[in-house]
Amino acid sequence: MTEKKARKFHIETYGCQMNFSDSEIVASILKAEGFEACQDLLEADIVLLNTCSIREHAEERIRKRLHYFRSLKRKNPGLTIGLLGCMAERTKIALMEEEQLLDIIAGPDSYRHLPGLLEQAGSGQKAIDTILSADETYADIQPVKIDSNGVSAYISIMRGCENFCSYCVVPYARGQERSRDPESVIREAKDLFLQGFREVTLLGQNVNSYQWKAGKETMDFPGLLERIALLDRKLRVRFATSHPKDLGDEVINMIAKYPNICKAIHLPVQSGSNAVLDKMNRKYTREEYLGRIRAIRNSIPGCAISTDIITGFCDETEEDHQQTLELMREAAFDSAFTFKYSERPQTIAQEQYDDNVPAEVKERRLREIISLQQELSSASNHRDLGETFEVLIEGESKRSDKQYFGRNSQNKVVVFPKTAQKPGEYVKVSIKRATSATLIGEAC
Ligand code: 5AD
Ligand code: SF4
Fold it and tell me: Whole-model pTM?
């Protein structure tokens, strides 16, 4: 009897860290069903795109990629093509009909059904599952690492979002907020440590509202953070993302308490103007945001703070824009992700407000924000000159095989001449030079 050859799947991931973590869950589900992962797209029988809908540009990139897959499918008509994630959820059957190319559409809560969907697609039927769940957390699934450096890993601790910021598609694409059983999170962190990983990033759209209840047992985010920090002092813990309205003193104190909880907080501000924040439904004022920044700076000396900023939101005036620039200076962000507002279907902003800041104004404001952030990042890195940091080595620097790169607790990239240590080990590095993006030093 000849053995049936395993079908090979290849996953491409777009968007945020959460999607990368989800692709590992998908890989785990498919492997458990006898499918084989493959790196080379051209060898695959099944291609899955794990997609992002956060900005129009993200969706455009994926549509372009689908055109390439059209040519692949012409050469190999047996190829199965599946769309996963937020764009699958958002567009549902429409994209399948439009593109006449997709065999499978699966939303973020449907990954357990993928083997069945693949079987259906194999028998020539289009397969769709975009039902969102109130309780799916994939807690029992041990993710299979894809493209891993073997040093740092993501752990998803919650799914969905219920904040309904008026610009954001995530609550519609990813559904209700739900937290994962803490014991399964701790087990996953422990396993990763035993496999040699030395850094875990706890992921959720809004990790500070993590909340688990089972009978009399409860666990909140600071509690979970502490349990992971206590696993081993050589395991670093990071987390993303925090909503400023939920970042309480308990979390700040927990970060200060344990050296292996990294001194880096990503705290998206989005805008420095109260009028815009209100319209965005962010539920805090610029004063409250700056109050949180002061609390962090007071309790955690040397903590890096990064942010996300959207420019050109509906009705944003020049005065609002100036207030964002002022807030950036006052907060002295170490780094920032900056975006032009992109109207998304279904959102409150799309339904109720006018996307009325002209494209060229959005572009000019974005340039001003980027240029100020470069100054602030450069100043932040130059403040580190002469300092010594503990760096977790991640691998060889891209520029030279004689150099290592790693990160300090503040999440800054540090490059230095190779030492006897290996990736996954810690080394003390003294900083000699700095650019706006990198610290350059020597082991000491
Ligand atoms: N347009 C531009 N940027 C957006 N973001 C979320 N939605 C939009 C949108 N419609 C940004 C926010 C968020 C980050 C992940 O993406 O800054 O924090
Ligand atoms: Fe991630 Fe949001 Fe993009 Fe979905 S829409 S992939 S949740 S960034």
Answer: 0.95
